[in-house]
Each structure stands twice: as C-alpha cells, then as structure tokens.
Amino acid sequence: MNDNELDLLLTSHRSDANIDTAALTTARTRLLAVASTQTQSPPEMLIRHERTPLGSGPSPRRVSPSWRIGLVAAAVAVLLAGIMFAVPATVRNSADAAAVTLLDQAASVTASDPVIPAGQYLYMETHAHSLSIDMGEGHVTSISIDESLIQTWRPAIWTDQWTRHSQVIGRTWIVEPATREPLNTAVGKLSAPCGGFYSAGCSQEGSWQTPTPKFMAALPRDPEQLLERLKNDAPNNGRGNAELVVYVADILRNGLVPADLRVSLYQTLSLIEGVQITEELANLDGRVGTAIGIVDPSGRTRQDIIIDPATGMFIGEREVTLRNDGNIPAGTVTTASSVRTVVVPTVASTG
Amino acid sequence: MPESVLDPATGDPQQVFAALFDLHAADIGRYLARRVGQRAAEDLVAEVFLEALSSRNTFDLARASPRAWLFGIATNLIRRHFRAEERAMRATDKAGRQLVVVEPGADHDVAARLDAAATVARIGGALVALTPGDRDVLLLNAWAGLATAEIAVALDIPEGTVRSRLHRVRRHLRTALTSTTSTEESA
C-alpha cells in the first residue's frame, strides 16, 4: 500500500461521523453560562507553566520534566542494550568508497534465484521489530518493543494461491504501563492469488512496497536509470536521499526481488550520495552481515540495509536513532526486519 | 473576531470563549465523533470547552494556537473513553463501504472487491491496535488536519518526536494493511 492509498483509507474511515447541531447549541449555552460567572484575570495574576501539559488543567506538583526524561532515557538505554542488537550510535567515518566496494562485491556474487519446483513453495519468513511508545499528558506512560513473525508461502506459479500467516510473538516492556493489556497473539491467516492479500488480488499494479512481476520487470536494470526512477517514485518528504534508501529497503524486504534486479539495486545504492558502511558486522536476529546506510538530513535517524557480502543476500533492514529525541535515546532501533527464504514442499512447512 | 487577538488567558471569558466555540466547536465535535462515536462526542465537546475555560490561565498564546490547545484538551478527554473509541473505530461507515466500490481495479473482480472490503474493515482494527500515543499523532494529523508543530503543542511533546512517530506509524500501517494483519481471521 502506498501513502496515497493509506490517506484514502484514513480520510474515508468514519468520515460520516458527526455530532448533532442541537448538541452544539446545548454545549454553547452551557459554556457561556459558566463563562459569565468568570472574571477576566489581570495579567499580573496569570500563572504561566512553561512545561505544564496543555489541556491537563492545573496540575499537582510534578517531577521536573528534564529529570524525568533523563531517567526514562537512562532506563531505556540500559534495557535496550540488553534486549536489542548492539548498534553504534554514530556513523563510522568510512569513505563512501568502502560502501561502493561492498556493494560491488555483493552484486558480483549475487547468485541466481532458487527454482521453485511445480507444486512447491518459496517460504519467506520475516521477523519484524517495532518500538511502541505511549504518551499520556506529556510524559511517557509505556515503551515496548513488539516482535512479529510473518510467514508467506509463494506458489511456483505466481497466479496460484498464496498463503500468509502473521502473528505478534512478543512484547518486551521497557517502561511498563500502569495497567497491562494482554498481548493478542492470534495468528492472522490470509490467502490470495498473486500475493494480492490487499485489495486487488492479481489486478494489483505493483509498487516499491508491493512488487509484482510486471512492476519489477518494468524497472530499469541500468543503475543510473533505476536511480532516476527511484527519485521520481519516492516522495519528497524532507528525508532527502534517505527516502531513496527506504524505498530500496521496502522492495527488498518483500523477499521477492529477482537476482538481476537485486544486483541493479545494489549498484544503484552505490550511486546515492551519503550511503556508507555503517557497521561491518551487523547482527540482525542472529544473522550477521554488513550494514550500509544513510543518515537523514535532520541527523536524527539512519536507515540501514544489511547484506551478506559473501552471498549478496539481503538479510534485512533497520532504522536507528542517532540523537536523543525526547525519550528515545540515540542508538535505538525503532524498526527492523529480517528476511529468510527457502524452497519448501508444502504450505505450513518452514524449511 | 480574528483568532490572532483571541487570548483565552487574558480576554473577557464570555466574549473570548463564545468566539472560540464558534470558530472551533464544529471541527472538534466532528473529530470527537469520529474518535469516540456521536453519543460520547456530544457530551465531550461541551467538556472540552469547559475544561479550557477552567484552565485558561495556563494558556500561552505565544506558544500555542487556541486550536492546537483545544485539540490537546480533546485528546486528553478521549483517553478516558477507550471503550467508546474502540467500538467507534471498528464500525465501518457508509463512506468506507463506498470506498470499496470505487477501489481501482476492483470493478470486475469479486474476489478483489471482497479483499478491498476486508481492508476497509481492517483499518478500524488496525487503528485500535495502535498505542494511544501513535493513534493521537496519526489522527490529529489525518482527521483534525493539525500540522506537526501544532500536534507537538497539543500533546506537549517535541516536534521531532511527532515527526518520527508519524512517519513510523504511517509506515507500520502501510505494511500492516498491505499484508500482515488480519487478526479478525484468527486461527
């Protein structure tokens, strides 16, 4: 799904909902009746709370926000260090040339695609991590890392029936909420031809986020032309070249990109200014590869793509914070996904 | 009275709040109805303005627009109505059903149309599954039309945090609605 489709869904959802004008009239009458009993405050009597959460009304004595944030940040940093992958908070001063060498090497060793025998399936397993932060009245009420398992069985013939199981498999509390809600670990099961689990079945046109054979076949293999295509397709959202890397990560994450296109994508990454090696030995879900990445123009986050230099295989991708931002300390992996693919004889077998 | 001279903290309460109500109540009422349903919203819209009136001395015109301030108050009140919000979010309304019909490419394909219907139905579940903080940022932007700077004021969090959360939650929804969440079809 692209941003326009998401916007369409969001703006349509519950767009009929409204309140009765009679209710507005009643509310206005009530408000003005109370307001008429209030007096205008002389300016010198005003109490200004620079950091009082707006809308919370007069608040009881509170812990200094900066101290509280520092405490939460420290707790998060300590806990994250034990839970998440070890990630450097700052980008290494590698020359871009090192990334080019790595990408060239990955492109040169990229093998041909596995052949799926008739009646069998390509099993794709994605582990995804995402950081969830809940804020209430201006302070953090909970922070968790959620882990999802997404299993997809692609048939030998693209237009046959695909199967997908998805499940939240874990939640690690960094900051516990006052009341915990039980984790919903139900397995969502979807089935659709052409992998068109969303909306259009085999009629979907394809995109960087939902690639179809037709979409991928139409992408240029020449790296410079592919870069131009990326620049045309990626939104101009203030993330600069980092958004181009996000789009490359989006298409690679699906595990469906054929070897020749993967080679072109690697070569295209080496043309993007700002791309560099960010970690030589990056560990994503126990699989080690080299991370290449790019820092946002804001300097706040970095998008990484992790590749096995020995085989050219795409291992996964992640987004890392580089600065303390509110309660999120530098070095936090805010999203990550790793992908594994293997040919299996039946749906439900996982290699 | 233009909004720029409406200062809830220093102006005459009756005059200022009458003008603020006339400027913003309809938008806030509609936003509340989308979030928690018509019945709860009709009570809450009055509460938003009464709460604003009683806490007007904490308002700082130099820092916040009255609109962002009022949506901030509305957001805090919504937090107390989680059950109503959950019911409202899962309700697929007429506009959502119409979206299924106009979904590109779905006109001649029954299976595709059913898939589109499932996605429209899933948006409600996906919104409920978000953390309240993520849902607030997303819907203050998508439904209330607040810019990230205004959302930062409404929720009293850094604008950088708003931007990164908005980006993250939109990306999460794009992925989740494309393919990965369908817990309604639980095994």
Explain how this protein is built.
- The complex is a heterodimer of chains A (351) and B (187).
- Chain A is of the alpha+beta class and 351 residues long.
- Chain A is built from eight helices and nine strands.
- Chain A has helices spanning 3-12, 21-35, 65-83, 96-109, 213-218, 223-233, 241-253, 259-269; strands spanning 121-136, 139-155, 161-175, 188-193, 276-284, 287-295, 301-307, 314-321, 333-344.
- In chain A, strands 4-3-2-1-9-8-7-6-5 form a nine-stranded antiparallel β-sheet.
- In chain A, α6 crosses α8 (259-269).
- Residues 42-95 of chain A have low confidence and may be disordered.
- By secondary structure, chain B is mostly helical.
- Chain B has helices at 13-36, 38-54, 66-78, 82-90, 94-102, 110-129, 132-142, 148-155, 159-180.
- The interface between A and B is large, with 97 and 107 residues.
Low-confidence stretches of chain B: 93-114, 180-187
Q: Number of helical runs of chain A?
A: 8
Main sheet makeup of chain A: 9 strands, antiparallel
> What integer is the average pLDDT of chain A?
77
Strand runs of chain B, count: 0
The overall strand count of chain A is: 9
Average pLDDT figure of chain B = 76
Strand content bin of chain A: 25-35%
Brief rundown of the structure:
Chain A has eight helices and nine strands.
Brief descriptors of the model:
heterodimer, A: about 350 residues, alpha+beta, 9-stranded antiparallel sheet, 8 helices, about 30% helix, about 30% strand, globular, B: about 190 residues, mainly alpha, 9 helices, about 70% helix
Write the layout of secondary structure elements.
The complex is a heterodimer of chains A (351) and B (187).
Chain A: H1 3-12, H2 21-35, H3 65-83, H4 96-109, E1 121-136, E2 139-155, E3 161-175, E4 188-193, H5 213-218, H6 223-233, H7 241-253, H8 259-269, E5 276-284, E6 287-295, E7 301-307, E8 314-321, E9 333-344
Antiparallel strand pairs in A: 1-2, 1-9, 2-3, 3-4, 5-6, 6-7, 7-8, 8-9
Helix pairs in contact in A: 4-8, 6-8
Chain B: H1 13-36, H2 38-54, H3 66-78, H4 82-90, H5 94-102, H6 110-129, H7 132-142, H8 148-155, H9 159-180
Helix pairs in contact in B: 1-2, 1-3, 1-4, 2-3, 3-8, 4-6, 5-6, 6-9, 7-9, 8-9
